[in-house]
Amino acid sequence: MSQPQFHTEQNHRDQHPVPATVSAEQFQLLSSNILREINTVMDGKAEAARLALTVLLAEGHLLLEDVPGVGKTMLAKTLARTIDCSVSRIQFTPDLLPSDVTGVSIFNQASQQFEFRPGAVFANIVIGDEINRASAKTQSALLECMEEHQVTVDGQSYSLGEPFMVIATQNPIEMEGTYPLPEAQRDRFMARISMGYPDAAAELEMLETHQSVSPLNEVRPVATGNDIAAMIRTVHSIYVSPAVKEYIVALGQSTREHPQIRLGASPRALLQLLRAAKATAALAKRDFVLPDDVSAIAGAVLSHRIILDRKAVGAGETPGGILTAILAKLPVPQQSSPRG
User: pTM for the full model?
Assistant: First the structure.
């Protein structure tokens, strides 16, 4: 049996007290510094970088899906390096075991007791590379971790640190040697990004700057784990009007009632859409959510959860296309600010 293929870049945890929130100025300074560091590495991927930060601040998990070689793992590693916190990377393979991810109890002959050895999931940011190359059993080991921020081994539960985020990459399911993620696993990811190819200018810039030294080596932490935790608490305080909440519920119900959709947005999906919209508003320097924040992030949050019926798939429809059509017909509330 092969050895677990993961490594931990930093094993300690920050034990300093976490501030309740940060000021609006400090929030913008930290977020702009993180995005600047990411954009020095990821040429032409500013939108993907911003969405990755949005998911982090919304306490979600991110799924990066595209063909090999377009920068999925690079984006995950760059985001992790901008933050001074514990980071683990797991290379998913067909023979990876669930205990390699979560940890295992080992009998200590000296103490005559079982001792728990934490797995790679015990970190603030966990990078799961090519998650759909592992078996369904190993993929499912992440379910409890992602939803409840804890691991249960031999009847004993162990809490994970805060903040906690899983950034997983996967190749399209048509690629050789891949296993599709089950619906329950996909639903745990707040958002999915399809990286796409860079434009010609960005690709030319990459050839000029990346040919000798990887720019990832120059990335330095610009925020601590405590900073991120405080920013997350700031996002919690963003105001959401009843009208915007009704807009989100109406969007979810529209996906469930659409004739071409077999599986619509779950209640968990709507809750995560709300959290992502609050983070979007905070990054836009607002303390309240607009309907535009919801519609801007809806595609990334909902598309990977929606399953179309066979006729829609045969007609060439996509979840993103149908979601865009639903948003175009959905009435937009006019009052959404605290002063509205």
Answer: 0.84
Packing angle, helices 291-302 and 46-57, rounded to 10: 100
| The total number of residues written for the chain in this structure | 340
Task: Write the secondary structure of 128-158 as one string of H (helix), E (strand) and C (coil).
Answer: EECHHHCCHHHHCCHHHHHHHCEEEECCEEE
For 286, the token pair is 């607002």
Domain residue ranges in the chain: 6-231, 239-329
Give the phi and the psi of residue 202 in degrees, each rounded to 5: -65, -35
What is the second-level CATH architecture of the domain 6-231?
3-Layer(aba) Sandwich (3.40)
β strands within 135-287, DSSP E: 150-153, 156-159, 165-170, 191-194, 223-224, 261-263
Cα distance between residue 86 and residue 325, in whole Å: 41
CB 144 within 8 A of CB 156: no
Q: Are 89 and 7 in contact (CB under 8 A)?
A: yes
**pLDDT band (50, 70, 90) for residue 82:** very high
Residue 125 φ/ψ, nearest 5 degrees: -125, 125
From the number of C-beta atoms within 10 Å of its C-beta (0-12, 13-18, 19+), residue 48 rates as: buried
Return the amino acid letter for 21. Answer: T
| Cα–Cα distance for residue pair 234/68, rounded to 1 Å | 36
As a whole number of angstroms, the longest Cα–Cα distance in the chain is 68
CA distances for 334 relative to 97, 143, 299, angstroms: 51, 38, 21
Q: Which of 289, 263, 85, 252 is nearest to 183 (CA)?
A: 263
88: β partners: 8, 126
Q: Are 66 and 172 in contact (CB under 8 A)?
A: yes
Per-residue pLDDT of 278-293, as tens digits, reads 999 999 999 999 999 9
CATH class, domain 239-329, is mainly alpha
